[in-house]
């Protein structure tokens, strides 16, 4: 997630330089075609880039709006996980006898659940969660394709044991169980966002229309601007392309990039909070921003 208010132009160019080169080549080709092939035969109506530009603006606006909705929904889901995680640990620590080792095991297991979920959403291998699990837990989750779901199942089983041993009463059992249900809901919503592909036709057609617009704009403007139309065509196209790329960077909010939801930071924050609630001595350091620009 970006932390700075102003983005350096060099950063934008690093992300778009390949497209910029292709666009300059396209504008150059359009200018040469107009100057040497069609200039003496007919003129390109200016209405063409006007209509295309309007249509593209609607397409890009819609795509970017939907992309931000996906990103914001993902951020709200993990914001809820922060709140529910703190409530879950607080309930276990204060509602169950301090001498019961199950409390620490369940809080540790919840930290492992978060790291396992994060690794799954980012399609990465994250072994941090292993240190928070017992050998018995590790053997059990090896049987499952979905490790974080398996961990929730173990949590429910241990909660049931606490209830049967009268370590918690029925009302507190229902409250903590409701939190496990919310964890499952957050997990499912996160997986839905990750596994639901943004309609390919939306992004594909937008790219095609942008190229048509850049070429047609260059053809029209070259009638009055001459060779300068190459630069003007690129400049106008750069605005459309940059805006579209900006929106598309939010399409997959769980990707490990500067535009994604900062899962590393959120997970580490929960980890620190829960360990401090357990009065642990070894507390990890918070995740720090990269180059003071963004945090993962």
From TrEMBL:
Location of the protein in the cell: Cell membrane
Whether Ion transport counts among this entry's keywords is: yes
What topology does the record note for this protein and the membrane?
Multi-pass membrane protein
Query: Sorted alphabetically, which keywords does the UniProt record give?
Result: Cell membrane, Ion transport, Membrane, Transmembrane, Transmembrane helix, Transport
Q: Which InterPro entries match?
A: YneE/VCCN1/2-like
Domain of life of the organism encoding this protein: Bacteria
Q: What is its main location?
A: membrane
Among Pfam families, the record links this protein to: Bestrophin_2
Q: Where are the transmembrane segments?
A: 21-38, 44-62, 202-221, 227-245
What family is this protein classified in? Belongs to the anion channel-forming bestrophin (TC 1.A.46) family.
Query: This chain belongs to which protein, by name?
Result: Bestrophin family ion channel
- The source organism is Pedobacter rhodius
